[in-house]
Amino acid sequence: MPPRPPLTEPRHHRRVTLADVARAAAVSSATASRALADDARISLTTRGRVRAAADGLGYVPNAAARSLRARATRTLGLLLAELDDPVHAQVAAGFEQEAGARGYTVLIITGMTEPAHERRALKVFVEHQTDGIALVSTILAPAEVMSFARPDRVVFVQADHPSLAGYRLDPPTGSIRAGEVEGIEEAVRYLVASGYRQFAYLGTGATATNLTRRAAVERAMRAAGVRRPLRRFAVGARGWRSGDAIAQRIARSRPEVLICYDDKLALAVMDGLRAQGVDVPGDVAIIGFDGIPFAALSNPRLSTIASPSLEMGRRAAQMLVASIESGSLPSSIVLPVQLLIRDSSPPRRVAA
Question: Which of 38, 83, 187, 350 has its Cβ near the most Cβ atoms within 10 Å?
């Protein structure tokens, strides 16, 4: 009769421990732990040797225990102004893709452009011990945000507190912007060269991005030699949901070209002007901002200044992970935009 197999597990099936990895790499358990966590205090040579030992032994770290020891949760917080905004959705998609690729999960909360909601979201992130926080188009002052979290673990994407208008007071590290001023200047140069002289701007209120974009239009007009003043129109943060009301005012004013704060507003106004019997672009040309997918599907197709929303999300996650790993937040960056001229703003036809 063949012998029965042993009742105990064979030795080679025993779970590999950190101590095993440390012995194989000829380092202490503490050094092995830090090396596997990519601690910059451990030399690259030692880190490589420990990783090689861990891979060779098939070591699988205990994530829960590691989190408790390192006080890290491998979780990032993402605070969006609105989740139903196509731009914010693209930023969130880029952020989550990059975070996931680097081994992090993402906790997403919307602040609804309300200070109280944003503060509540920050408290939730702190309670859940997120390793870093990214804020997208939020309206709290950066100084207040820093009172909730470590300054080197916070990244701002298109921060919208009014004090940041003009972007000169953006933090020197951890801030991501689209190069919208340059995009607006290019758009105005194109419009002037195409025969437009009567400009109007449709904005959304006292936020840093709206104030900056409107001021950029006015400066670009002056630089191009346009002497007529910019006509200003304004709606609330969700004014795009009721485009008919603002379209009536614009229809009465009839500027030659209307530059809108974003594509949502531009599309809503375009539809409202159509209901007023105003032809776009025959009577009023329109340019939006953001480059959302729907802009290329409208009738007429909307000209826009396309912002790299997906890339801004990726860069925000990269910044946070870099800070977590190195202890130093990367420098602020400005990403280029792209002017897309479509059917809504052709060269102006002037009657003979």
Answer: 187
Alpha carbon 5 to its chain's center: 59
The amino acid sitting at 135 is L
Calculate the CA 107 to chain-centre distance: 15
**Strand, helix or coil for residue 156:** strand
CB-based contacts of 49, cutoff 8 Å, min separation 6: 25, 26, 27, 35
| Rounded-to-integer distance, Cα 148 and Cα 123, Å | 7
The three-class DSSP label of residue 275 is: helix
All structural domains of the chain: 18-70 (1.10.260.40), 75-179+309-336 (3.40.50.2300), 180-308 (3.40.50.2300)
**Residues facing 154 on adjacent strands:** 133
Angstrom distance (rounded) from CA 163 to CA 141: 8
pTM beyond 0.85: no
H-run or E-run covering 124? helix 115-127
Q: How many residues does the chain have?
A: 352
pLDDT digits (tens, 9 = 90+) for 258-301: 999 999 999 999 999 999 999 999 999 999 999 999 999 999 99
Q: Which carries the bigger pLDDT value, residue 242 or residue 14? A: 242
List C-alpha distances in Å: 262 to 62, 113, 135, 304. 47, 16, 19, 8
Beta strand ranges found along 179-224 (DSSP E): 199-203
Q: How far apart are CA 339 and CA 323, in angstroms?
A: 33
Q: What letter would DSSP give residue 236?
A: -
Q: What is the DSSP string of 44-62?
A: HHHHHHHHHHHHHHT----
DSSP state of 165: T
Helix (H, G, I), strand (E, B) or coil at 200: strand
